[in-house]
Amino acid sequence: MKQFEANFDGLVGPTHNYAGLSYGNVASLSNASASSSPKQAAKQGLKKMKALADLGMVQGVLAPQERPDIASLRRLGFGGTDANVLTMAAKQAPAIFQACCSASSMWTANAATVSPSADTGDGKIHFTPANLTNKYHRSLEPEVTGRILQATFANKEYFAHHTHLPDNEHFGDEGAANHTRLCREYGKTGLEIFVYGRHAFDTSKPAPKKFPARQTLEASQAVARLHGLSDENIVYVQQNPDLIDQGVFHNDVIAVGNQNVLFYHEQAFYQSPQAIAEIKQKFVGDDLHFICVKTDEVTVQDAIKSYLFNTQIITLANGDMAIIAPTDCKENPAVSNYLTNLVGQNTPIKHVYYHDVKESMRNGGGPACLRLRVAMNEKEYAAVNQSTLINDSQFERLNTWVDKHYRDTLHVNDLSDPQLLIESRTALDELTQLLSLGSVYPFQQV
Ligand code: SUG
């Protein structure tokens, strides 16, 4: 049976803006209060999805969330009409209000951790939505994310959905952004690498001093248990705490893997030699490529600015691998040189394709943040909600939908405009029909 990896990208929502909400994420902080373009952002994302579909990849789309999140604001005591909730919250608690307007669900690498059927105890594909407890704006996502995932992967014969982990920092879970799977073939049992930032229940262990470690070891272990993974197919690796303090807020900002390739910065992991030795020892197969980028080739600062490691490594139909990189990598001389040399080396990576996803990059989200990987076989593919898959006609429909509903520019001061809420709900209502999702949003359930 054919086996492959599908990418499900987050569709950028109509309230995409720069509010500086993510302490520890350099781009988010430095672009706070800049004007955004929700229309351009959504189109840049769709263009990347279409390009991957055109390369022969299976490409899906995950719907955005309902924002402004009126239900969360009501829970915090803002009442009256929806327009009143918006005005009062924006005036009395602007930071909380902005958090409730974020389009951050676009970064679907943080939507969930996914284990393919070849790895799990019951032979189903398992999904655990990430609880994203470290940032209030992101902690609003998991429930609706769970509903969207269930509407996208609805068939219970093939897909198992878990509730997100307890909403507590001890179990802080950021999903696939801190999870990489290595394998010989997508349909064969793989090695699931869980990268965590700190130990929640043992504070004597190393941890960053300045910026938060969003993922805990205990959360990663809980996800592995829920998915029924075997110990011999798991490696837990601690992220280098010094790098978290420099702005590497997720592992996918400094490392990425695909099949038999692990592409990472030499400073990515705490006790790196031990981690690499364990990966080598547990990986089934002998053709494993460790592509380790040295600091004198690309500094950590250049890696963070360009998002060299927030690239997608994909396997093309002819078996070659390609890197999907943000144009920011091309604009950085050290990184661009590195990539040009890399494709000429003796590794499976033979091509680099650059994509402009700058609207997302300004909030610290590169190509890899925008996608959730789901390795699957033909039967599982047939069981996916087919309206969520990108082909020429669905791409056209979604582009037209963006043109119809999205604003060209948006500033944080526009977020309390009651008209934006109406526009956003109208757009999402139509989207649930385009993607055959049913009623996944709170406003559809009242
Ligand atoms: O969680 N930025 C996101 C970026 C997520 C990137 N994802 C991965 N690395 N997988 C975050 O920090 C910024 C929103 C704002 O500031 O308006 C934000 O949420």
Average pLDDT, rounded to a whole number, is 98
Q: Write down the CATH topology.
A: L-arginine/glycine Amidinotransferase, Chain A
How many helices in DSSP terms?
Answer: 17
CATH superfamily annotation: Succinylarginine dihydrolase
How are the strands of the largest sheet arranged? 2-1-15
Q: Kindly provide the name of the CATH class.
A: Alpha Beta
Q: Which word captures the global form?
A: globular
Describe the structure.
The protein has 446 residues and is an alpha/beta fold. The chain has a single domain (3-444), classed as L-arginine/glycine Amidinotransferase, Chain A. Helix content is 34%, strand content 17%. It contains 17 helices and 15 strands. The strands form 5 sheets. A 3-stranded mixed sheet has the order 2-1-15, sandwiched between helices. The chain has a 3-stranded mixed sheet with strand order 3-4-5. The chain starts with a strand and ends in a 12-residue tail after the last helix. The mean pLDDT is 98. Bound molecules: N~2~-(3-carboxypropanoyl)-L-arginine. Residues 18-22, 25, 28, 102, 104, 107, 109-110, 135, 138, 177, 249-250, 252-253, 363-365, 369 line the site of N~2~-(3-carboxypropanoyl)-L-arginine.
What brief labels describe this structure?
446 residues; L-arginine/glycine Amidinotransferase, Chain A; 3-stranded mixed β-sheet; 17% strand; binds N~2~-(3-carboxypropanoyl)-L-arginine
